[in-house]
Specification:
This protein is of the alpha/beta class. About 25% of the residues lie in helices and about 20% in strands. The longest helix has 15 residues.
């Protein structure tokens, strides 16, 4: 990778962002465009999760397997530890859960493993979260992802989860069940994208949950709840050329990828803020985001994380991987790009300083496992 100039950060001095958006407030601020497209200004307000002066809370729980009863018990314990999740639904009961189905069904898992045991969000974690959201009052629950292939939903067990829980799957690659995509504006804090093409459902939510896998990423260093938002948009609108089958425009040219990807992560998080983060680290992987990375390998951390500050939650998970969440390029795990958690902290999205975060449940040291970064 060519050397990168990281001396200038255009986001410094940005105001704090709020993560609870009323559906009614949002629709009042949105305008309808021609052809049924919704033009939405999903703009964060000027307050942060830490603006009350209280330290953000991140819960850690151990779980050695994906036994259904065990997973639900531990997710419940984490939600209790962070003060419950009723406040996540304070503005209403329409909730979307963003999962990570990266890579597509044609990528083969490592021998002796499955995709959901290494680099795909495990459906049992999603099942537990849905059931607990229902208990807290969620009425309409959607499982969302811009999947590489429609076969992914059945292949990874999500059709069964949707059927059993009454959740509805929305493939963000398409605009269904709407008549067209929405052009959703980000905030004035954006650095690359002023707006994104999205399924309009993402503009009509009362709460947005990111359930990611605990793993490394070749460019982003780590990929947790914030990086998970890369899959919010249909790839075909974000390619450098018509032959690409991934969001190549998000990466840009090779000389700019290490700086561009972290800033795109920020633009996505400003546009569709995360209100609840859950990270699946029961079984996971190190050395990269999938088996297409040569340093990729399976690991068994046996851990889960949850929090309402996505930056803090990602920071705690990063520390539990043996990395410093405030480190930056070219220090591990940020060997190929700048640290998006540092960008998020400067934007006021949340904090990645461990001394500003209250960890409940297990301690970081009790669950810590040194991960191999992606080379």
């Amino acid at each position: 990778m060519k050397s990168l100039n990281y001396s200038h950060h255009p986001c410094q001095g940005a105001q704090h962002a709020s993560y609870l958006h009323s559906r009614r407030q949002f629709i009042q601020n949105a305008g309808l465009a021609a052809a049924g497209l919704l033009l939405a200004g999903c703009q964060p307000q000027n307050s942060a999760p830490t603006s009350t002066g209280k330290s953000p809370m991140v819960a850690i729980a151990k779980a050695a397997t994906y036994d259904r009863a065990l997973v639900k018990k531990q997710v419940q314990a984490m939600f209790d530890g962070i003060g419950g999740i009723a406040d996540v639904l304070a503005h209403g009961n329409r909730v979307a859960i963003k999962v990570n189905l990266t890579g597509g069904v044609n990528n083969k898992p490592l021998p002796g493993t499955t995709e959901i045991e290494t680099y795909i969000t495990h459906p049992e974690v999603v099942r537990a979260v849905i059931e607990l959201l229902r208990d807290a009052g969620a009425k309409d629950v959607f499982i969302v992802e811009a999947a590489y292939e429609p076969e992914s939903w059945a292949h990874y067990g999500y059709l069964d989860v949707a059927k059993d829980t009454g959740a509805k799957i929305i493939d963000l690659t398409d605009f269904a069940p709407y008549k067209g995509f929405a052009e959703v504006k980000t905030t004035t804090q954006h650095t690359i994208y002023e707006k994104f093409t999205m399924n309009p459902l993402l503009t009509e939510l009362d709460a947005f949950v990111s359930i990611s896998k605990m793993k490394c990423h070749n460019v982003a260093g780590v990929t947790h709840s914030m990086k998970n938002l890369f899959g919010l948009v249909p790839y075909r609108y974000y390619t450098l050329n018509s032959r690409d089958t991934y969001r190549s425009a998000f990466h840009g040219q090779s000389s700019e990828t290490g700086k561009r990807v972290p800033h795109v992560i920020m633009d996505l998080n400003l546009t569709r803020p995360v209100t609840l983060s859950v990270i699946d680290g029961i079984l996971s992987s190190e050395g990269g985001e999938g088996p297409w990375i040569s340093s990729f390998g399976a690991v068994k951390p046996g851990v889960l994380f949850a929090g309402k500050d996505p930056v803090a939650t990602d920071a705690v998970a990063t520390a539990a991987m043996g990395f410093d969440p405030t480190a930056d390029y070219p220090n591990k795990p940020f060997l190929h790009g700048i640290n998006h958690m540092n960008l998020a902290a400067k934007l006021g999205i949340g904090t990645n300083l461990l001394n500003e975060i209250k960890v409940v449940g297990e301690t970081i040291n009790n669950v810590k496992m040194d991960f191999k970064p992606s080379f």
